């Protein structure tokens, strides 16, 4: 499956064609939107965001190059960071290094799906020890990963797919989740992240998953609800959305079984500390 690396190169012609079709992105639209957003940010006396083109594009792509919508997203992010300041303030990869390296909870696949989307697996069952890794720890890791993902033009354009694997989930896991944690995660996904979430897939849910879903359901908006899929142990249903050729054998795919985790790809985070510091500087003045 290859070594994990961030793909920070400019988008290919194929990707730009997708961006034109789905995001209205053309050189002319892009230039005008960047200039308009730059002026809006500079005029917003309460906001602190870099205004270089590469950084502004992170917010313009998910809002289809409507500058005012991009500014609203930036405000949402600033508000989110303010609300959860104790959890997120100046969060660096080193702060969650032990979760990446010592616990097999979150994994990023080295390859993309058939639509070019970045894929992430979150293990919420047998490999998660709630005594060692709290709900907040998991969120801090997810937030750190998103800072890396927004660096990838291919991910900005094509989006992400998340697979939640509940194999082996028990009451100790259910008791470790809370309505507050559910609200924080869904507010982030739906309002305060520039990533295009194209699909969230739940697999291997046990009977008591209904207790978990009852925490999350009140906060799920219609747009995201249409992109959530519950497959149970029927991996063939997952393959209707993510082709077998793109998945490891662990998930019924034709690729080799996963033999790596955060320990192997955590060093990538350390290679982009300057950008992470730049991101951490954003928000309200």
Describe what this molecule looks like in 3D:
With 285 residues, the protein is α/β, with parallel strands linked by helices. It has a single domain, classed as Phosphatidylinositol Transfer Protein Sec14p, CATH 3.40.525.10. Helices cover 47% and strands 12% of the residues. A five-stranded mixed sheet has the order 2-3-4-5-6. A hairpin with a 5-residue loop joins strand 2 (106-112) and strand 3 (118-123). The longest helix is centred in the first third of the chain and has 17 residues, at 27-43. The model has no long low-confidence stretch (mean pLDDT 96).
Task: Name some characteristics of this structure.
Phosphatidylinositol Transfer Protein Sec14p; 285 residues; two-stranded antiparallel ribbon; 7 strands; 47% helix; 5-stranded mixed beta sheet; alpha/beta; CRAL/TRIO_N_dom; phosphatidylinositol bisphosphate binding; single chain
């Amino acid at each position: 499956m290859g070594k994990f690396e961030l793909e920070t190169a400019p988008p290919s012609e194929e990707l730009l064609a997708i961006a034109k079709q789905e995001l209205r992105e053309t050189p002319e639209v892009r230039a005008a939107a960047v200039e308009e957003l730059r002026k809006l940010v500079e005029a917003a006396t309460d906001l602190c965001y870099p205004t270089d083109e590469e950084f502004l594009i992170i917010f313009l792509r998910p809002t289809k190059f409507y500058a005012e919508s991009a500014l609203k997203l930036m405000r949402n992010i600033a508000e989110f960071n303010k609300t959860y300041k104790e959890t997120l303030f100046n969060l660096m990869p080193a702060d969650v290094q032990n979760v990446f390296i010592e616990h097999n909870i979150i994994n990023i696949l080295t390859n993309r799906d058939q639509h070019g989307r970045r894929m992430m697996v979150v293990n919420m069952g047998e490999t998660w020890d709630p005594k060692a890794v709290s709900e907040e720890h998991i969120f801090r890791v997810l937030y750190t990963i998103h800072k890396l993902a927004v660096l990838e033009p291919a991910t900005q354009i094509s989006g992400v797919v998340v697979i939640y694997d509940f194999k082996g989930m028990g009451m100790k896991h259910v008791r470790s989740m809370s309505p507050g944690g559910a609200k924080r995660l869904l507010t982030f996904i739906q309002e305060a992240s520039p990533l295009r979430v194209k699909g969230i897939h739940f697999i291997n849910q046990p009977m008591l998953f209904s207790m978990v879903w009852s925490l999350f359901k009140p906060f799920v908006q219609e747009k995201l609800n249409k992109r959530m899929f519950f497959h149970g142990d029927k991996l063939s249903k997952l393959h209707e959305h993510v082709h077998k050729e793109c998945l490891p054998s662990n998930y019924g795919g034709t690729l080799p079984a996963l033999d790596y985790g955060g320990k192997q790809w955590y060093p990538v985070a350390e290679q982009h500390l300057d950008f992470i510091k730049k991101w951490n500087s954003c928000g309200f003045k």
